[in-house]
Design goal:
It is a single chain. By secondary structure, this protein is mainly alpha-helical. The chain has three domains: 110 residues, HUPs (Rossmann fold); 113 residues, Serine Threonine Protein Phosphatase 5, Tetratricopeptide repeat; 82 residues, DNA Cyclobutane Dipyrimidine Photolyase, subunit A, domain 3 (Orthogonal Bundle), CATH 1.10.579. The protein has 16 helices and six strands. It has a two-stranded parallel sheet. Strands 3-4 form a two-stranded parallel sheet. Helix 7 crosses helix 11 and helix 11 packs across helix 16.
Length: 355
């Protein structure tokens, strides 16, 4: 797991023996939506494993279970009386606004907020002063990111002579292709305990079972993996002739291009994006989104899989679910709430601009 960006700074200023990491499990946050239970298991298990890892490395850890985040942090401040709080900027608008406007005032302790390292645009912004009414295309955003970070570049030119190999990646998968088996891990004691707790949350949806989930986005979006870590591994595979240029470029474009571009647009357009509703759609979300009971075969199959697994392919999400909601005139806020609840990898910064 990558090092948290504020740990080194706090340790340099106070010494490791004087640094306490506080992790708050907020009941209100867990019940904010009818979340897919696998998502809750992933988040809580990752948090508790991280706490154990920090303790092994010599940090003091205060894991607090509280009704709300504010109450949990207030309990920590009362018990530990810290001189200063360090935190990484939240990736979502409401979370960051709380950090900037309320955190220090609510607890009476100086707060240091450091840039979010889960996104590369926190370090380099291709368009630092965007014009309000100008369109910014992902392709040119992506090229600026490739050039700045020197990814798949041959001097000033793109490796292979092209920026984009999307046409080659639209070919069907060869019939003799055998995908590697899905990596699976048996739940340890920590995860087993979390699974029992999450199974008891009445407001949640889906079932609790082994997390046989190989999709990188779920781990990337909670910080277990970092974007440049993945980008460099794939770039090295291309340079070692272990992956063709079209495969390497297509993978890298999804992370360095699309993911960063969506995050950049989210912060450019918020908070007005929350209320955006170009077609004035007002219909409520149909009940079958929560139980999968519909005569429409494609929707039934996809929604039932989402309820069971917390995952759908992006074509299923965009071309079937979102297309139906657009044609049906469904309120986009209700659709967004469902996406945030249903998918293991769904978070505000990606769902709001996409939905």
């Amino acid at each position: 797991m990558p090092e948290h960006p504020v740990l080194a700074e706090a340790e340099a200023g106070y010494g490791r023996e004087n640094v306490t990491v506080v992790l708050v499990e907020s009941q209100r946050r867990l019940e904010k939506r009818p979340y897919q239970r696998k998502k809750l298991v992933l988040l809580l298990s990752a948090m508790r494993h991280y706490a154990d890892d920090l303790r092994r490395r010599g940090y003091q850890v205060d894991r607090v279970k509280a009704a709300t985040f504010t109450q949990g942090l207030r309990q920590h401040v009362t018990n530990h009386r810290p001189d200063q709080l360090f935190t990484m900027a939240a990736s979502d608008y409401d979370g960051r606004r709380y950090q900037q406007e309320s955190l220090q005032r609510s607890h009476g302790v100086p707060v240091t907020i450091r840039p979010n390292t889960q996104f590369l645009t926190s370090e380099f912004d291709p368009y630092p002063v965007p014009e309000p009414d100008k369109r910014y295309l992902m392709e040119y955003f992506y090229r600026k990111m490739r050039t700045h970070y020197d990814v798949l570049m041959a001097g000033d030119d793109p490796a292979g002579g092209q920026w984009n190999y999307d046409k080659e990646n639209r070919k069907p998968l060869p019939k003799d292709n055998q995908p590697p088996p899905v990596i699976a891990f048996e739940p340890d004691d920590i995860t087993q305990q979390v699974m029992q707790e999450v199974a008891a949350i009445r407001h949640a949806t889906g079932v609790v079972e082994h997390l046989y989930h190989s999709k990188l986005a779920a781990y990337l979006n909670i910080g277990l993996l970092e974007p440049m870590e993945l980008i460099r591994v794939v770039e090295e595979a291309y340079l070692a002739r272990e992956a063709p240029i079209n495969s390497a470029e297509g993978f890298i474009r999804q992370i360095l291009g699309w993911r960063e571009y969506i995050y950049w647009q989210y912060w450019r357009l918020m908070p007005g994006l929350y209320e955006s509703n170009y077609w004035a759609a007002q219909r409520p979300l149909p009940q079958f989104f929560w139980d999968g009971q519909t005569d429409m075969n494609c929707l039934r199959y996809i929604i039932q899989r989402a309820i069971h697994s917390g995952y759908n392919h992006h074509i299923e999400r965009l071309m079937i679910i979102c297309n139906f909601c657009l044609l049906a005139g469904t309120d986009p806020l209700a659709v967004n709430e469902w996406f945030l609840s249903a998918y293991v990898d769904a978070y505000d910064w990606v769902m709001v601009p996409n939905v």
